[in-house]
Amino acid sequence: MNKKEQKLKRRRNRQYDSEFKKNALQLVENGRSVPAVAEALGIDKSLIYTWRRQANPLGEEQEAELRENDLLRNRILELEQERDILKKALAIFSRKAES
Prior knowledge:
By secondary structure, the protein is mainly α. Helices cover 81% and strands 0% of the residues. The protein is built from five helices and no strands. It has helices at residues 3-12, 18-29, 34-41, 45-55, 60-98. The longest helix is centred in the last third of the chain and has 39 residues, at 60-98.
C-alpha cells in the first residue's frame, strides 16, 4: 500500500467526537456554508450534512402530531364513506315512497 492509499484509509476510518461535530454544526448555523466549513476542518461536506440530519430528527411531539394526522385522515375517509352510503340509501327509499 502506497502513502496515498494509507492516507485515504486513515481518513475513512477517522472517528469524530461529539464536541467536534457540535462545533462544526455551530459554524454552519452561524452562517458559514457547509462546503467552507468542511474544507476548513479537512473533512468531506457529506459528513456535515449527515451530522446535521442526525442532530435534528423529528421530535416526539412532531411524530405524535403526524400519527394523529394519519388517524384523523382515516376517520375522515370513514365518515365520507358512511355519508355516501346514507345518501344512496335516502335516494333509494325516496324513490320507493313516491311509487
